C-alpha cells in the first residue's frame, strides 16, 4: 500500500543514508504509485538533504511504460537510474547525467 511505501521512505529520510533511490525497477504491474506521486515524494525527501535518484524499469514492455519513463527523464530536478538502454538513450539525447 501507498502508506507503507511512504512510511518506508520517511524512515530512509531520517536515516544516515546520503542517497535514496525511489521508484519501481522490477515490475510495472506493481505500479500502485504513479509518476507524479514518486516525483512529489522525491521533492519531499530532497528537503531532508538527501540526494534523490529516480529508479526506472529494467525492462520496458509497453508504450505506457515508455511514456512514464519519459516523464521521469524530463523531471528537470533529479538524477535518473537508467536500468534500460532506452532510458540511457533518452538521457544521452538530452545530455542529462544518469547512473
Any descriptors?
99 residues; alpha/beta; three-stranded parallel β-sheet; 4 helices; 45% helix; globular; U32 family peptidase; RNA/ubiquinone_mod_enzymes
Characterise this structure:
It is built from four helices and three strands. It is of the alpha/beta class and 99 residues long. The chain has one domain. The longest helix is centred in the first third of the chain and has 13 residues.
What's the short story on this structure?
45% of the residues lie in helices and 12% in strands. The protein is an alpha/beta fold.
Structural Rg: 13 Å
What percent of residues are in strands?
5-15%
User: Main sheet: which strands, in order across?
Assistant: 1-2-3
Reading the helices and strands in chain order gives HEHEHEH
Q: Give the helix tally.
A: 4
Please, what is the oligomeric state? single chain
Structural class, from secondary structure content? alpha/beta
How many distinct domains? 1
Distance between the termini: 28 Å
The backbone outline, from C-alpha atoms, is globular
Uncertain segments of ≥5 residues (pLDDT<50)?
Answer: none
Largest beta sheet, briefly?
Answer: 3 strands, parallel
Helix content: 40-55%
Q: What is the average of the pLDDT values?
A: 89
Please report the total strand number as a whole number. 3
Amino acid at each position: 500500500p501507498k502508506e507503507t511505501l511512504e512510511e518506508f521512505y520517511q524512515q530512509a529520510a531520517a536515516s544516515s543514508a546520503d542517497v535514496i533511490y525511489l521508484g519501481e525497477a522490477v515490475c510495472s504491474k506493481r505500479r500502485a504509485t504513479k509518476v507524479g506521486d514518486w516525483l512529489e515524494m522525491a521533492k519531499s525527501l530532497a528537503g531532508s538533504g538527501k540526494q534523490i535518484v529516480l529508479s526506472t524499469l529494467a525492462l520496458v514492455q509497453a508504450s505506457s511504460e515508455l511514456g512514464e519513463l519519459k516523464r521521469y527523464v524530463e523531471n528537470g530536478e533529479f538524477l535518473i537510474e537508467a536500468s534500460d538502454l532506452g532510458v540511457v538513450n533518452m538521457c544521452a539525447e538530452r545530455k542529462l547525467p544518469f547512473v
